[in-house]
Amino acid sequence: MYNILDHIPAAAQCILYTFDRIWDPDKKVEKLKKEVDKLKNARNQVQKSVDVAIKNEQEILEGVHRWFIEVDKKLTEEEVKITKAEETARKRCFLESFPNFMSRYHLRKEVDKEAKVIDQLLKDGEFDGVAHIPASDISFKSREHALAEIINALKDANVNMIGVYGLAGVGKTTLVKEVARQAKESKLFDALAMVDVTKASDTENIQEELADQIDLVFTDNINITRLRADRIRQKLKSTKTLVILDDIRSRLNLKAIGIPFGH
């Protein structure tokens, strides 16, 4: 037989637990203040790292900029919320005789929610680094040296192919464009062609772009890749042409395109 009295101790314990959690709202307000202080300290530490990076003429990472915006917004919000929380903690009802438990309950929920948001911001602020050296500034002297080496290699009759490689964003395209400019000014070649291999995407498109730049016109009946390659090869052998293939990300069949190489 069901006896409700058997469940009264457990229910009372649950009520007392909930009552205890909302009885002292000042502890919740203090908890929120401590979390805000942690966030302020974290912001100050990251700012110090940023100041050092700026002093060293480094470029601040976009993620760090976004973090500062989110943190500053949250700190501004918390100033208002702490003031409201302190007012809520003092609220009373029934002719000021009893604490307003409903308000305090909502206060506890709000503080716990804000604490989680701040905790996430603290985790997001654990950066491995706050800045990087701008691509345009990476080893400028080294780049000048590489430029000089490439130009010298282009002047060497025994060199027919030069490779420029490196991580994305370090300025390889900028470097080869400067090579092309200087080679043109120095009249090292009769013609110049530069094709973005990734954008062209396939052999046929590469052939078409290359043909346009070396003044080669394919007739309507030449729509076979192999025949186009023969025409390109003949044209390149008949003139001294600098061909620059930029942004190569996978193995490229030069023979299929029509670019002669080797001896």
UniProtKB/TrEMBL annotation:
<dbReference type="GO" id="GO:0043531">
    <property type="term" value="F:ADP binding"/>
</dbReference>
<keyword id="KW-0175">Coiled coil</keyword>
<feature type="domain" description="NB-ARC">
    <location>
        <begin position="144"/>
        <end position="261"/>
    </location>
</feature>
<protein>
    <submittedName>
        <fullName>Disease resistance protein At5g05400</fullName>
    </submittedName>
</protein>
<dbReference type="InterPro" id="IPR027417">
    <property type="entry name" value="P-loop_NTPase"/>
</dbReference>
<feature type="coiled-coil region">
    <location>
        <begin position="29"/>
        <end position="56"/>
    </location>
</feature>
<dbReference type="InterPro" id="IPR050905">
    <property type="entry name" value="Plant_NBS-LRR"/>
</dbReference>
<dbReference type="Pfam" id="PF00931">
    <property type="entry name" value="NB-ARC"/>
</dbReference>
<dbReference type="InterPro" id="IPR002182">
    <property type="entry name" value="NB-ARC"/>
</dbReference>
<keyword id="KW-0611">Plant defense</keyword>
